[in-house]
Amino acid sequence: MIESLLIANRGEIACRIIRTARALGIRTIAVYSDADARALHVREADEAVHIGASPARESYLVAERILAAARDTGAAAIHPGYGFLSENADFAQQVIDNGIVWVGPRPASIRAMGLKDAAKQRMIAAGVPVTPGYLGDDQDPARLAREAAAIGYPVLIKAVAGGGGKGMRRVDDAAAFADALASCQREAAAAFGDDKVLIEKYILSPRHIEVQVFGDTHGNVVHLFERDCSLQRRHQKVIEEAPAPGMDADTRAAVCAAAVKAAQAVDYVGAGTIEFIADASDGLRADRIWFMEMNTRLQVEHPVTEMITGQDLVAWQLRVASGEPLPCRQDELAIDGHAIEARLYAEDPAKGFLPSIGRLEAFDLGDTARVDTGVERGATISPYYDPMIAKVIAHGATREEARETLADTLDAAVVWPLRSNAGFLVEALDHPDFVAGRVDTGLIAREGDALMPPVLPSEEVLATAAAALAGPQRIAGFRLNAAPQRTARMLVGGEPVSVDFAAVAVSPVAHDRLLVTEGGQTWEVTPFRAAGAAAGGAGDGAILSPMPGRVIAVEVAAGDAVVKGQRLVTLEAMKMEHSLTAPFDGHVADLAAQPEGQVTEGTLLVRIVRDGE
User: Is 143 helix (H, G, I), strand (E, B) or coil?
Assistant: First the structure.
């Protein structure tokens, strides 16, 4: 067994790997950037090495610094986690060339599956069904437009080196193709250094089914059944579960066999995931499930597979990397119950899911579900990395039991003062289609506002908060044969609210400030004081940068007439593009945004005024 392990990652996955390594008696070494100097994974490891400045490109993506840290600490192996350098074949080869064990697939396997077009060609040769599309080298926009038309709209443009939903666009008609292609290529170049794309048929009733596969150096390959990752927002997974709802035994056998065949085609070693797209318009059927891509690493959603199989996949990785055979044969693996995972992000659903950055002063996810996290109370969520703060995983004998446990856990989640998507996740878990297992990748986009959590707590919670804040005071109103009433004015999340409550409903306590949580949302409630009321923003037409980032496109000029919804500025932040649009018809009065300019949160970019003003 490996004696020492450097984890070339951060946050939740680093903590997850440390936990298993410690159980196996392996010494762990963390690496960290300036922003992560006090991070949880740094404190949990046996040793930690500083590797650079806060931006990932100056730390977690610098292979030589990670290798130097491994050499300096005598690390016997490197585990890349997911993201960053986990699917970088050149880095994997460098690790091996330095005499260090690489806890992952062979570099040749990573290369074989790293480019989506080449991977699909290989799968076709291996007899694995693939989605209809264009995989050619000719990247001329006119050629790509012709291919899209030949495939038939809607189509999906995908970066060949992509992942995580980046560099991906759905296009519904020819008129939108050119803009979508340009945006996709810009995002792909920024995220992966490669703007090459492929085009494939967009499935109108799609479900995202993936199969966990595992290979060892002795020629053994097994699957650990499937996961359903269909609940997505902007092509990024939100809620995952195992097994897939509605998957019958014959279809499961077919898709899992195809996954094993795909892994064998590239002599796969270690943990990997074969991703399929299913046309679920007539339920899950073996003849309507096609290979999309392979992720040559451990997936974010691996805990649901662990929960239904009783296996520790990180332990499997470490044993395989040590040269041991797989811990189980295929006939020793079975499905036990159901598991569902939700990705908890520090982001604000009310503001287009923009990341919420700052200090996490209150953070509590209870103890009713498994929580994989890399943060704790007092941690700082920085703008430099993905804003996922935890994965919450529930297991039950049935899907409904797992769903209820997860929904209840998230309902009581305390995340403050940062905003989180916990309330959104609760709404999604309670949606009738999800409850019934009728999930496809378009559900969130279709439902839109129906999945948005309430802006304020319920009247019952507000009344309780009002009584707790008010304390003993003169009764404001009294009617014979009626409960005495009081009226309180409060600030709830900074907004003034008036609420009537029965004086006998609760025992007044008198607080200056308290936190209330309901439906996965947390609000600060304080007594209303005129001086404490918010002064207001910069005005209806002031377009402010919602977060730190880089201006990559300015679509208007000073004095231009604009219409409501027109794109004004495109900002790149958190490795994604964010379009800022006009809030109403008018004209550009001020234009401060400059292409390639770096901006901080709250920076005025454009000011729109209504005509005549």
Answer: helix
Amino acid at the residue 11: G
- 107-114 helix and 116-126 helix, angle to the nearest 10 degrees: 100
Residues 164, 236 contacting (CB under 8 angstroms): yes
Using the predicted structure, report yes or no on whether residue 428 has a pLDDT greater than 90: yes
Domain ranges of the chain: 4-103, 132-201, 206-451, 459-532, 542-609
Report, at the CATH architecture level, how domain 206-451 is classified.
2-Layer Sandwich (3.30)
Q: Please, which residues have CB within 8 angstroms of residue 38's CB and are 6 or more apart in sequence? A: 379
Backbone angles phi, psi at 320, to 5 degrees: -65, -40
* pLDDT single digits (tens) 246-303: 999 999 999 999 999 999 999 999 999 999 999 998 899 999 999 989 999 999 999 9
E runs forming strands in 338-431: 338-345, 347-348, 354-355, 358-359, 362-364, 370-373, 380-381, 388-396, 414-416
pLDDT at 413 over 60: yes
Per-residue b/e over 527-539, b at no fewer than 16 CB within 10 Å? beeeeeeeeeeee
Tokens of 570: 């495109």
For residue 222, CA distances in Å to 225, 303, 336, 417 come to: 9, 17, 17, 45
∠ at Cα 153 (151, 158), nearest 5°? 75
Structural element, H or E, at residue 429? helix 422-430
H runs (alpha helix) in 270-344: 302-309, 313-321
In 205-337 the beta strands, taken as DSSP E runs, fall at 206-215, 221-233, 236-242, 270-279, 289-295
Measured CA angle at 61 (ends 59, 63), to 5 deg: 95
Between 3.30.1300.10, 3.40.800.10, 3.40.50.20, 3.40.50.300, what CATH number should domain 4-103 receive?
3.40.50.20
pLDDT of 456 = 87
The two tokens of residue 423 are 């309330």
The whole-angstrom separation of Cα 506 and Cα 473 is 14
Tell me the per-residue pLDDT of 148-206, one tens digit each, with 9 for 90 and over. 999 999 999 999 887 767 889 999 999 999 999 999 999 999 888 899 999 998 888 89
Beta carbons within 10 angstroms of residue 100's beta carbon: 18
pLDDT, one tens digit per residue, over 589-603 is 989 999 988 887 778
What DSSP line would sit under 72-126, residue for residue?
Answer: HHT-SEEE--SSTTTT-HHHHHHHHHTT-EESS--HHHHHHHHSHHHHHHHHHHH
- The CATH fold assigned to 542-609 is OB fold (Dihydrolipoamide Acetyltransferase, E2P) (2.40.50)
pLDDT (mean) for 462-471: 77
Q: Which of 297, 343, 370, 486 is catalytic?
A: 297
What's the predicted TM-score (pTM) here?
0.79
Average pLDDT over residues 483-493: 66
Q: How far apart are CA 574 and CA 554, in angstroms?
A: 19
Q: Is the model more confident about 234 or about 157?
A: 157
Strands 4-7 and 77-79: parallel
Mark whether 297 is an active-site residue: yes
Tokens linked to 506: 């609760």
CATH pick for 132-201 out of 3.40.50.1970, 2.30.180.10, 3.30.1490.20, 3.40.190.10: 3.30.1490.20
